Amino acid sequence: MDEMGYIPNVSARRLVTQQSHTIGLLLKTASKDMTQNPFFTDVLMSISKVCKENHYSTVISTSMNEEELLMEVQQLVRSNAVDGFILLYSKSSDQVITYLQSIDFPFVILGKKLSSYSNEIYIDNDNVIAAYQLTDYMIRLGHDNIVFIAENSAYAVNEDRIQGYERACRTAGLPVKVFEGAAGTQEVRKIIAEIIAMCPVPTAIIASDSMMNLNILSELYMQHIRVPNDIQTATFNDSYFNEAACPPQTVVNIHPESLGAEAGKSLIAYLNNPHMIKRSIIIPTSIIERESTKPLKERVL
């Protein structure tokens, strides 16, 4: 075969085996904030690496709304274009998940298990614990007035991070102050305006997402508010953006490469053995301390 330069006909093989050896990757939205988020870049690269090692290709499907995404998924299924899906989000009452369950089509969710009765494969961090630990870390630095800024809480990851923040504040007897909005500049500008108008002004901001955090840093700079001297900041997911920010940002490292790798391995294992016991996997997190946070007694006012 090597001497004759023979290349297998992939299309013919698919007709015989009824398998595409392709995995569909579903993002929750095609928005700019999503597609430029380093978390998804790291996850997608990791999934792609695992798939290539196992002779699978990948196709990414994104849409601006849930209805369009459902139509894309249905088309991929009906045309036998994919063998299974990895959903890079977890959301209650999701039409795509309901559809895939109704036809018993293989998929893995990179996100939280939303029901104890669900018999699917979930790959996730414990975001409640992660947010609790980050908030507790800020409290131990001396902060007693901490604001949490979250993206759309309809997604389980944001709900969990809010819950962890609230739990840490209540355990310490501190007030809970949560703001919600899109990660875009206009939404963040409005939230920061409300925060700096508070009396007293909070000494720390935790952002639920690193893209949101970048816009927060930009707006604080525009308002001549210094980080970490005037206010301290922290967020989730380590990336080049957070490490190279001014100042470098304290983060919860959620290990997106491990999340993606486990998602890819789990789906491929299930495709090769549909009768296997479905197991969910929790990837541990850790805090990386950087210049955006430090003990309050060391602050130069």
Can you walk through the features of this model?
The protein has helices at 10-17, 32-35, 38-53, 66-78, 95-102, 127-140, 156-171, 185-196, 210-222, 240-244, 256-272, and strands at residues 22-26, 57-61, 84-87, 107-110, 121-124, 146-150, 178-180, 204-207, 232-236, 250-253, 281-282, 286-288. β6, α7 and β7 form a beta-alpha-beta unit. α3 packs parallel to α11 (256-272) and α6 runs parallel beside α7. The chain contains eleven helices and twelve strands. A six-stranded parallel β-sheet has the order 2-1-3-4-5-11, with helices on both faces. The protein has a six-stranded mixed β-sheet with strand order 7-6-8-9-10-12, sandwiched between helices. It is α/β, with parallel strands linked by helices and 301 residues long.
Keywords:
six-stranded mixed sheet, 301 residues, six-stranded parallel sheet, 42% helix, alpha/beta
SSE layout and pairing:
Blueprint: H1 10-17, E1 22-26, H2 32-35, H3 38-53, E2 57-61, H4 66-78, E3 84-87, H5 95-102, E4 107-110, E5 121-124, H6 127-140, E6 146-150, H7 156-171, E7 178-180, H8 185-196, E8 204-207, H9 210-222, E9 232-236, H10 240-244, E10 250-253, H11 256-272, E11 281-282, E12 286-288
Parallel strand pairs: 1-2, 1-3, 3-4, 4-5, 5-11, 6-7, 6-8, 8-9, 9-10
Antiparallel strand pairs: 10-12
Helix pairs in contact: 3-11, 6-7, 8-9
